[in-house]
From TrEMBL:
Keyword Amino-acid biosynthesis assigned: yes
Cofactor entry: a metal cation
Catalytic activity: L-homoserine + NAD(+) = L-aspartate 4-semialdehyde + NADH + H(+); L-homoserine + NADP(+) = L-aspartate 4-semialdehyde + NADPH + H(+)
Protein name: Homoserine dehydrogenase
Pathway(s) served: Amino-acid biosynthesis; L-threonine biosynthesis; L-threonine from L-aspartate: step 3/5; Amino-acid biosynthesis; L-methionine biosynthesis via de novo pathway; L-homoserine from L-aspartate: step 3/3
Enzyme class, first EC level, given as a word: oxidoreductase
Source organism of the structure: Lentzea fradiae
Residues annotated as binding NADP(+): 17-24
UniProt GO MF annotations: homoserine dehydrogenase activity; metal ion binding; NADP binding
Lineage: superkingdom: Bacteria
Lineage, opening ranks: Bacteria, Bacillati, Actinomycetota, Actinomycetes, Pseudonocardiales
Record function comment: Catalyzes the conversion of L-aspartate-beta-semialdehyde (L-Asa) to L-homoserine (L-Hse), the third step in the biosynthesis of threonine and methionine from aspartate.
Length: 438
């Protein structure tokens, strides 16, 4: 029996919103790989239009496709899929809701929008049966959201911990390598083009907090928004912190940590936080340097996994966008749908104060008898157990380094506040959480 050859199906028509760093690379990949994409999808993918702000700036893309009217492009009957790489909340939120309500599948790289309004977008997608894919929004090119949404959907994830911001990782890696301070290292990163002109979203942890919210939502089947995430950036990380970490075989990283926490009574909740932390130099995340990202996932059956690669940049991010575009196009060809929002577990989000953490505290103290016992008494008073102490005497004062066992973050903060007020403590040199070790 001979099988009749079928040609490619009806073209999938794509509206591209935004043509900056990522958008330009999306157009390039779509053009360069048109034939392969047709084979992989079973239908050609064609650009129906590209919405931009300033058309005369875009000499690298076909002029006849450019429009400044994103709203009209999204509404056009000629469009099946909307790819959004503008960024920000407005006007993208309205544009993507309009697209989804009209049954057009959406591919977006916009973590800020998803972390704030993800559930509205999912509801609109469900109402019309459209797809919503966003692999590029977290850790750029690294396949991470698809593994969480699909490959690990049969497992129980307990922890997701990673380096999800390239700019801050570049700065912290450089501080570790040179011993220089935060401000001068950030200046150098800007000069080399690794930090944006306005690095606030990166250095104050907003970018990582949006990504943490998305990761926690997917890992724990719970709606987590950016405002649920405890956030501390890297502005306060000093050369002394980095030196203190090095002295104990650790390094400082800005971590996004999403954990499933079970109380003694068996009540489950999630804790989601972004802050600098010391990790052992032997931990797999310690060797992630420069602008690279890496995310460590722990699941009951699968065990430990690490995802590593380029978390930013035009081409790497466009790779993730194209992967999503192929997925939604295949779904259209097969009249199927990708995964919907999965928020059925609806676990409560635990406040940071109740979250168990460990601290590294470095003090300058008077070098006289009884100091250690005074400091130790404050820990005991707050029910914080000490894991290790190192004291080095000098002429008039001494350096005292204390690493705690896990205690609630609130108890650890109160302990540090009280110790800072002891007359025998000359200076609290460095306080930082410790992660990645038992
Ligand atoms: N650059 C990266 O490395 C990277 C990595 C991961 C995710 N992302 C995300 O991808 C998205 C795009 O990032 P980018 O780096 O390409 O930004 P970009 O600033 O280079 O590009 C955005 C483009 O959108 C245009 N634009 C703004 N408002 C518009 C409107 N109303 N209509 C049409 N065009 C409009 C701008 O003129 C600009 O050209 C953001 O959501 C960002 O968070 C970027
Ligand atoms: N500003 C982000 C870009 C990728 O989301 C970073 O530095 O990682
Ligand atoms: Na990704």
């Amino acid at each position: 029996m001979s099988v009749k050859e079928t040609g490619p199906g009806k073209p999938i028509r794509v509206a591209l919103l935004g043509c900056g760093t990522v958008g330009t690379e999306v157009v390039r990949l779509l053009t360069d790989q048109a034939e392969d994409l047709t084979q992989r999808i079973g239908a050609p993918v064609e650009l129906a239009g590209i919405a931009v702000r300033r058309p005369n700036k875009h000499r690298e893309v076909p002029e006849h496709l450019l429009t400044t009217d994103a709203s009209a492009l999204v509404k056009s009957d000629d469009v099946d899929v909307v790819v959004e790489v503008i960024g920000g909340i407005d006007p993208t939120r309205g544009l993507l809701l309009e697209a989804l309500r009209n049954g057009k599948s959406v591919v977006t790289a916009n973590k800020a929008l998803l972390a704030e309004h993800g559930s509205d977008l999912f509801e609109a997608a469900d109402a019309s049966g459209a797809d919503l894919y966003f692999e590029a929004a977290v850790a750029g090119a690294i396949p991470l959201l698809r593994p969480l949404r699909e490959s690990l959907a049969g497992d129980r994830i307990t922890r997701v911990m990673g380096i999800v911001n390239g700019t801050t990782n570049f700065v912290l890696s450089a501080m570790d390598a040179t011993g220089a301070g935060y401000a001068e290292t950030l200046e150098e990163a800007s000069r080399l083009g690794y930090a944006e002109a306005d690095p606030t979203a990166d250095v104050d942890g907003f970018d990582a907090a949006s990504k943490a919210a998305i990761l926690a939502s997917l890992a724990f089947h719970t709606r987590v928004t950016a405002s649920d995430v405890h956030r501390e950036g890297i502005r306060a990380v000093s050369a002394a912190d980095v030196a203190a970490a090095k002295g104990l075989g650790r390094t400082v990283k800005l971590l996004a940590i999403c954990e499933r926490v079970t109380s003694p009574s068996g009540q489950e909740s999630v804790a989601v936080r972004v802050h600098p932390a010391m990790i052992p130099r032997t931990h797999p995340l310690a060797s992630v340097n420069g602008a690279f990202n890496a995310v460590f996932v722990e699941a009951d059956a699968a065990g430990e996994m690490m995802f590593y690669g380029q978390g930013a940049g035009g081409a790497p991010t466009a790779s993730a966008v194209l992967g999503d575009l192929v997925a939604v196009a295949r779904n259209k060809v097969a009249s199927g749908r990708g995964p919907r929002e999965s928020a059925y577990a609806a676990l409560p989000v635990q406040p940071m104060g109740n979250t168990p953490t460990r601290y590294h505290i470095s003090l300058d103290v008077a070098d006289k008898a009884g100091v250690l016992s005074q400091v130790a008494a404050v820990f005991a008073e707050h029910d914080v157990s000490i894991a290790a102490v190192r004291q080095e005497g000098r002429t008039e004062d001494a350096s005292l380094v204390i690493v705690t066992h896990a205690a609630t973050d609130a108890a650890l903060r109160s302990t540090v506040d009280k110790i800072g007020g002891l007359p025998v403590v000359r200076e609290v040199v460095s306080v930082m959480r410790v992660e990645g070790e038992e």
